[in-house]
Specification:
Number of strands: 2
Strand order of the largest sheet: 1-2
Largest sheet: 2 strands, antiparallel
Radius of gyration: 20 Å
Helix content: over 70%
Shape: globular
Order of helices and strands: HHEEHHHHHHHHHH
Length: about 290
């Protein structure tokens, strides 16, 4: 949807055929995300995704899901070749997909190495700097910059200045989006978000645990270390109770409002030749989301 939205902001009277191509390129981003999520669920040993059992947990799938994910990714390039090979922006889009895939894999590597296996909690590596790096590389590039960059290339906008302007704003949106995701993993309604949150069990370097580490007393920190990174229901409940005790729900609400205002200021300051209304429409789509 973001590809089509962005293209309509960038090209005032788009042709039907170009809108169709924008939709197809948007579908390619969905395939890229599907590839990432299939692999991520295997690595995290997750249980549900979008209200359904994770693909690798389906009967007779198992670790074949890894090859299935790679198969999904390969289909992207078949689709691109079929639909846009004769366009002026074909090579730009191909290179963009490869670059964003590399960024996301880098972020996943950071995520996996910072968060050790369950039962080996090491909070010394859980810093906001490392968290921001993981978010930038693992989520923000493919979720926010990629769809807008595609629309920009389609519209003939190839210069570094405008792409940097877009990237600065959209990566900030991606950071905001991921903090929301971390919050929803713990506090979201399972029926609404479509998955069972497992960040606590998976020992994830999430925004919530970093804030808890920052705010906890020595005793609270000891309780957190004792219970974080375990799949035992009672230990998960202890961590959630500690989050409540530390006021992390209120902390998130403050962060959300502050981030929203910072993004609006960034749009006014850094949007270059690109329409400010486009970025404002995007941030309104995710502001105070519940899934």
């Amino acid at each position: 949807m973001f590809v089509v939205m962005a293209y309509k902001y960038l090209v005032k009277q788009p042709r039907d055929d170009d809108i169709r191509k924008a939709r197809i390129l948007g579908w390619c981003i969905e395939l890229l995300q599907a590839f990432f999520l299939v692999e991520d669920d295997v690595m995290d040993k997750s249980y549900t995704r979008r209200g359904q059992p994770c693909w690798f947990r389906k009967e007779n799938v198992g670790l074949e899901a890894i090859n299935d994910g790679i198969y999904i990714e390969s289909c992207i390039y078949k689709i691109l070749k079929h639909y846009i090979r004769d366009t002026s922006y074909y090579i730009d889009i191909i290179e963009l997909f490869h670059e964003i895939t590399h960024c996301t894999i880098t972020g996943q590597c950071l995520d996996m190495t910072v968060s050790p296996p369950a039962g080996t909690v090491d909070f010394t590596s859980y810093t906001i700097e490392k968290y921001n790096a993981i978010v930038k590389w693992k989520t923000a590039f493919y979720s926010f910059y990629l769809p807008v960059a595609i629309a920009m290339y389609m519209a003939g906008i190839r210069d570094d200045f405008n792409h940097k302007c877009a990237k600065d704003i959209l990566l900030k949106m991606g950071e905001y989006f991921q903090v929301q995701d971390d919050y929803l993993d713990c506090y979201g309604d399972e029926d609404v978000i479509g998955k069972i949150g497992t960040d606590i069990q998976d020992n994830k370097c999430s925004w919530l645990v970093i804030k808890a580490i920052q705010k906890a007393s020595p005793h609270q920190l000891a309780v957190l270390k004792e219970n974080y990174g375990s799949s035992e229901g009672t230990k998960v409940s202890v961590v959630k109770s500690l989050y409540k005790e530390l006021g992390l729900e209120e902390e998130f609400r403050d962060f959300e409002e502050k981030s929203f205002q910072e993004i609006l200021q960034l749009i006014e300051k850094c949007s270059g030749e690109l329409p400010k209304e486009m970025f404002k429409a995007f941030v309104q789509k995710i502001y105070k989301r519940n899934k």
